[in-house]
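Figure 2 data, in text form.
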Amino acid sequence: MNIIEGSQENFEKEVLRANVPVLVDFNASWCPPCRALHPTLEAMAADSDDYKIVTVDVDSEKALAASYDISSIPCLIVFKDGVETDRRIGLQPRKRLEKMLGVR
């Protein structure tokens, strides 16, 4: 599966109504830790259909970022059955992301 570009228009469908856990990466193109995290997220997305990875650019999706009180990036939030179950800020290792998703 590929990383899904999240937006106000598709967030409910792709995240809140998803039938698998979803890791949402709130980020920005100018953020070095966000850029460093991206290859890990790409690899994770390619490796499994047991979860989804959605990326949200906080500069182009300001209202969506504000609705989840995003004040630092990267901000990684896991949703299960439409409910936030975990949140971490900053560059995270793959094992921690997988643990957040409950897949390892």
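Caption note: The radius of gyration is 12 Å.
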